[in-house]
Amino acid sequence: MVLSELTRRELERAPAHVRAVPSKLPQQHIEEIGTPPEADELAELYLREGVIRPTMYIDALHIATAVVARVDVLVSWNFRDIVNLPKIRGYNAINLRLGYPLLEIRSPSEVIPYGN
Q1: What does pTM read for this prediction?
Q2: Terminus of the chain with fewer CB atoms < 10 Å: N or C?
Q3: Is there a domain that residue 116 lies in?
Q4: CA geometry: angle at 48 spanning 12 and 71, to 5°?
Q5: What is the total count of domains within the chain?
């Protein structure tokens, strides 16, 4: 699991069961990252090109941070602005144009096994 400082801040406001997810993983399986300067530029580009609403800069920065850090999958509960096929295509079109890899964006239910 890759955790950015942005994600840590958002987890502080999340329900207890969500905040507990990182603590359930062995520490050696968690990588903590900052926000690289180029992520800010990429987030601004998502906004300028209309992929994400201007009021959603922090979400754009989450996505850009994951892209710049070359994270394989970004997991989110935000279905309006992040886990949304037209938006995912928009982010990835920009990413590919700039030489970044595709970013998989999924909901928690697609990556966390439930039940037996």
Answers
A1: 0.87
A2: C
A3: no
A4: 50
A5: 1
